[in-house]
Amino acid sequence: MFEIMPESTEANVSLRATGRLTHADYQAILPELERRISAHGRIGLLADMTGFEGWTLRAAWDDFALGLRHLAGFNRIALVGDRRWEDLCASIGNHLIRAEVRFFHSADKPAAWAWVCGSPGA
Q1: Nearest Cα residue to 119 out of 5, 9, 3, 2
Q2: Which of 7, 54, 82, 86 is the most buried (most CB within 10 A)?
Q3: For residues 79 and 47, what is the distance between their CA atoms, to the nearest angstrom?
């Protein structure tokens, strides 16, 4: 499931993904992300993946389709987690979408949020 975290602003979203994501999870979050992209042109996104356990096949497609549909809809994307494959996803993401994508270890989540929000020195 996805949860928009309280530190989120209109133009910067902190999102926590937990468990195994399904198509219904994407159907629930997409309208809100698309509303924010529409309102601001581009948004920042922090995706906390520390409780993430994977996708159903349809949800994996939804994630890919979101990236394709909004190639220019994100400024910065921070992937927060502790697994090597999450770091690899950030590296691949830098080549697939126009946003700058970085991986942060879970202990560095405050720095990840500062970076997403564009804080100096982040």
Answers
A1: 9
A2: 86
A3: 5
Tokens of residue 24, six digits: 């219904």
Q: What is the token pair recorded at 60?
A: 């994996």
Tokens 């590296």 sit on residue: 91
Give the whole-angstrom CA distance, residue 1 versus residue 25: 5
Q: What's the angle, vertex CA 75, arms to CA 115 and CA 9, rounded to 5?
A: 70
pTM greater than 0.90: no
pLDDT digits (tens, 9 = 90+) for 27-36: 999 999 999 9
The tokens describing 91, both together, are 């590296």
Average pLDDT over residues 19-43: 96
**Options 3.20.20.110, 3.30.750.24, 3.90.1150.10, 3.40.390.30; CATH of 2-109:** 3.30.750.24
Please give the structure tokens belonging to residue 96.
């697939």
The upper half-sphere exposure of residue 48, i.e. CA atoms within 13 Å in the direction of its Cβ, equals 22
